Amino acid sequence: MTSDNGPRAAVVAAFRERYGESPSLLARAPGRVNLIGEHTDYNDGFVLPMAIDRAVWIALRPRADERVRIHSLDFGEEREFDLAHLASVGSQWIDYVQAVAWVLQKRRRGLPGWEGVAAGDVPIGAGLSSSAALELAAARAFSALGGMPWEPREMALAAQRAENEWIGVQCGIMDQMISATGEEGHALLIDCRSLETRSVPVPADAAVVILDTSTRRGLVDSAYNDRRAHCELAAELLEVRALRDVDLATFQAKEDRLEPLIRRRARHVITENERTLRAADALERGDAEEMGRLMNASHASLRDDFEVSRRELDVMVELAQAHPACHGARMTGAGFGGCAVALVRRADAEGFARTVAAAYEQQTGLPPRLYVCSATAGASVETVSVEPAAV
Q: Are residues 213 and 161 in the same domain?
């Protein structure tokens, strides 16, 4: 089920039932899968994500006061807050909306209140950026109602700041940037320092399959922030602004400055940046086999040098890599649970998904979810045709 046919219809129907009229606006922002370039974003490096056809939707209408009230169909609850008195409630879903409001209020005083219904089909906690999708959908809502110009890169930066400073996760720019600026049919090579982007076509004869292991991690409570600190220490010891500024030859000449743990962390980031640039070139040439080899090497580096994989992810990746239709596979997202991603022959994608899912469940006892995905456009907003509520 795609976002267009699932959550979009659900939030409009729930809004009409709840308020007796159609919503004024529909805000939407997609999740993402990162094809390659993991834990490089906060090191000023390169990433190659694509926005997927799974998204968070918010059906809404303006209020006359400064309150925001949202009913979440996914969480089965209604939450609200006062724009004049923002206060954290402890990294719950409503906090992501509050965080965006907090940042946008620094640009424009008097943000408008609104009320609505939210839902999404981006799996929560799977490493597909459901939080960034919620942030960008909220930003779209606030900007549309407040008459703020929609500047995708600036809004991505605002949402990143919201997550860094309000939620407390020191994420890089990738998740918010791809949710804001994704392009249909393309992955996006992002330079996380300059924020320059380059559209890269996904080969027509290849499919991207997301393999959800049914394991989850709490990002704030995980070792994510520790890994970032390791990278910052490595950059300091190598006397550079960020690990992006170190090529492999320089690293090999200077790696004895780093104790073994920090050396492994740095080696992953430095080699991953090189793999990501090569991957973009491979996709541009339509070379799915080379792209697959780079994805396989990325997983090994994440598993062994950055140590952010886990048994279930490794099992899923190994099963995918062993399938004859698979060009390559790797874990995707911050790690410690969640999803893997595979590039497979499009004609065999459904059979690949069935075979790998059955083998994974047999080996782990966990029922996985596999999604054959398409690259879609970034955050958007639309008006809704006015219809009376069903009686």
A: no
Whether residues 364 and 273 share a domain: the answer is yes
Structure tokens at 56: 């968070």
Q: Domain check: are 266 and 364 in the same one?
A: yes
At 49, list the tokens.
Answer: 């994500």
Whether residues 243 and 192 share a domain: the answer is no
Judge if 328 and 365 occupy the same domain: yes
* 248 shares its domain with 109: no
Q: Could you tell me the CA-to-CA distances from 384 to 16, 26, 34, 213, 325 in Å, in that order?
A: 11, 7, 32, 36, 42
Q: Helices 288-304 and 311-322 meet at what angle, rounded to 10? A: 160
Averages of pLDDT over runs of 10 residues in the chain (391 residues) are: 70 97 97 96 95 96 96 96 89 92 88 96 83 97 94 95 89 91 95 94 94 77 81 97 97 97 98 98 97 98 96 98 98 89 97 98 97 94 70 39
Q: Catalytic residues, which ones? A: 175
* Euclidean distance between CA atoms 188 and 51, whole angstroms: 9
Q: How many CB atoms lie within 10 A of CB 386?
A: 9
pLDDT at 5: 63
Q: What pLDDT is stored for residue 80 in this prediction? A: 95
Residue type for 3, please? S
> Is residue 378 in some structural domain?
no
Euclidean distance between CA atoms 192 and 306, whole angstroms: 19
Number of domain units in the chain? 2
**Cβ contacts of 239 within 8 Å, gap of 6 or more:** none
Fill in the amino acid letter for 22: S
345: in domain: yes
CA 25, CA 19: separation in Å to the nearest integer?
A: 14
In a domain, 347, yes or no: yes
CA distance 230 to 356: 35
Question: What's the farthest any 2 CA atoms get from each other in the chain?
Answer: 74
**Which pLDDT does position 218 carry in this prediction?**
57
- The CATH number of residue 76's host domain is 3.30.230.10
User: In 10 A of CB 154, how many CB atoms?
Assistant: 15
Host domain of residue 89: 7-197
